[in-house]
Amino acid sequence: xxxxxxxMTISFPSLITSQxxxxxxxxxxxxxxxxxxxxTKAMFGDSQTSPTPTQYGVYFQADSYVLFNGxxxxxxxxxxxxxxxxxxxxxxxxxxxxxxxxxxxxxxEIPGFVSDTYDLSLTDQSEAVTRIxxxxxxxxxxxxx
Length: 145
Hints:
Number of helices: 1
Helix content: 25-40%
Shape: globular
Number of strands: 8
InterPro entries: Pilin-like (IPR045584)
Strand content: 25-35%
Protein name: General secretion pathway GspH domain-containing protein
Number of domains: 1
Distance between the termini: 42 Å
């Protein structure tokens, strides 16, 4: 009985750390899926709201991101969809102009792209773990650290 208690005491912190790392990895996967979905809508249209392609984007705040339609993020737009991050997660750095990625109608490229790459950093503050996601001018994820 004492051995089981000792093993549980030793392994419990590891399980919590693993769960948090899974949380940041899962959040990054959902984020990348949402970014790709916005790019696809810009390229081919959205059958639910507009079958004709238009610009779509993602706006980043410290503790959430917003999926939007149009050339720029408009906070009051009722069509915006906000995705809240887990309380321990934050976007610690976003190098995209205006903290947003906008995909061009038809091509899905990021208009006005002036850098070789832009990136965003997703940080788990409780574990000091950061995932840096790099996306190129074509909206392709080129690196995840």
